TrEMBL record, chains A, B:
HTH tetR-type domain sequence ranges: 16-76
InterPro entries reported for this sequence: Homeodomain-like_sf, HTH-type_TetR-like_transc_reg, HTH_TetR, Tet_transcr_reg_TetR-rel_C_sf, TetR_C_16
Presence of the UniProt keyword DNA damage in the record: no
Native species: Nocardia jiangsuensis
Residue ranges the UniProt entry marks as DNA-binding: 39-58
PANTHER family assigned: HTH-TYPE TRANSCRIPTIONAL REGULATOR RUTR (PTHR30055), TRANSCRIPTIONAL REGULATORY PROTEIN (PTHR30055:SF235)
Protein name: TetR family transcriptional regulator
Keyword terms: DNA-binding
Length: 200, 200
């Protein structure tokens, strides 16, 4: 609660006060208990509001998470693009989708999210984002009886995190100015191998 | 100069004052002019000391740079390991060397360097580190008449940066606990392909 504490008595605090209280409670819950271990009801309880108000302001739990992490885009949208790709084109699709997103006007927000994650004030939240939100459906899709896919998607995350940093934060040339097609040609096979290839 | 300004008259300021002045001048020069565009003489001039004192305190220009970036290890040592590897084992060697380093007691310092770079207060310094110090000799080694190798080493940097973040900052499992051999088996071929393979 950053300086906008308001009285609890009488009517609800103004919209921005309730929103902030919900975000604050959600940040703590997600960070401590992860995405799966957090319920809208618990967040609402912590914030002293009705669960319906949480849904009203933020939509689904995934959307609430996106708001907490200050994601510039609903992860659902990205996941739908991934889900529509044939498995043998998933690597190239993930690289093309993410790099295109970072090159758009949403890129600076993606960099801001990354900076927050790397600043390390809240590694629990970052882990939760990758393990339970960003990577979960791709993991489930590539899982087999002998390999749950979690190592594979973590490897994918390592390559894509590094690409975001090299291209958008450090602006390492010639990678920063490389056309998306060239990035996809270079990095798509890496991600595809991490997803479905032989890992040695 | 952070609160330890000392008079210029009479004897040199104490060792720590001169060291701090040199580091301060070097940070500005490296950041503005890059590694190649910075001379020990210019740094010494800015700091108001004799160039010999810079060499005395910090050794080579590369070692001065390492001190500015607060690298936990002289990059020369790492480069010698890379240089000793046969070209077709360079990918695996780079992954094994860096991951082993990060897993050692030097790992937390490596993470600190990364955090500073990603915080983005000084992208010029980070670029200079990768382009002119960390990657230059590997680039020169893989350069051909038609490809100077700069895109290839930037791709390597993207994968290794992301590995450092995933494994050591976010501690993304199962990657964070993966034995070094398994990381080398998974990521070595990626780095080898970036260095010497077909990039599409």
């Amino acid at each position: 609660m950053t300086g906008e504490a308001q009285g609890r008595s009488g009517r609800r605090p103004g919209n921005s006060g309730a929103r902030a209280a919900i975000l604050d409670a959600a940040r703590r819950r997600f960070s401590e208990n992860g995405f799966d271990g957090t319920s809208i009801r618990a967040v609402a309880g912590d914030a002293g509001v009705d669960p319906a108000l949480v849904h009203h302001y933020f939509g689904s739990k995934r959307q609430l998470f996106a708001a907490v992490v200050e994601l510039p885009i609903d992860p659902e949208v990205v996941m739908r693009v991934f889900a529509a790709a044939p498995l043998d084109e998933l690597g190239a699709t993930m690289v093309r989708t993410l790099v295109t997103l970072w090159d758009s006007e949403l890129g600076s927000a993606a960099v801001a999210v990354l900076r927050t994650m790397v600043a390390g004030t809240d590694p629990g939240l970052a882990r939760s984002f990758f393990v339970e939100v960003a990577l979960e459906r791709v993991r489930a899709r590539i899982a087999t009886e002998t390999d749950d896919g979690s190592g594979r998607v973590a490897l994918v995350a390592s390559q894509m995190l590094g690409m975001l940093i090299a291209r958008k934060v450090i602006e390492l040339e010639p990678l920063a100015a490389m056309p998306v097609d060239a990035v996809v040609a270079a990095v798509g096979p890496t991600v595809q191998r991490y997803l479905t290839g032989e890992l040695g």
